[in-house]
Amino acid sequence: KVFQGAAFVFVQNGKVLYKSGYGIYDAKKNTPVNPDSSIFYTASVSKIFASLSLMQLHEKGKCNMSDDANKYLDKFKIDNPFSTSVTLKNLVTHTAGFESRFTGGLVKNANEIIPLEEYFSQRMPAIAMQPNSQISYSNNGAALAGLMVQKISGISYDEYVQLNIFNPLGMSRSSFFQ
What we know:
Blueprint (H helix, E strand, L loop, with lengths): L4 E8 L2 E12 L4 E2 L13 H14 L28 H5 L23 H8 L15 H15 L3 H10 L12
Antiparallel strand pairs: 1-2, 2-3
Helix pairs in contact: 1-4
């Protein structure tokens, strides 16, 4: 997909100094981007929230980033042929060693979303490289990090991020709810 639009807001010391929309928000209606009302998907930016959430849980003593990720999985396990464990840290640093296979995609309706645990129990990617041996950008690792947040916190990923990141930061127009 080619670039359609973006919003830019420059804030300094809590004061908006500049904001503007660029390009088209809705191509069918030729609606321009409005920095006050256009909604954008987080896409790969969501990986930052999964990492931050796991770090918060680590700081609260609910997990350790060096824990084997399989410790938190009960419906399936990461099949790792290597002696080095896949840790929580590996999931968020793109060093778990997963094969490069795209995780999921877009759906038209929220009721078509397959819960992460169900998705991975049916489609777990292989570990192709020894964990912690090299960096390899991983949608799978980030998605599993989100699942770890759910398992460790006991609430859904979208609820965890809302309560522990968006709300405290006053991000009232941000959400992962579908």
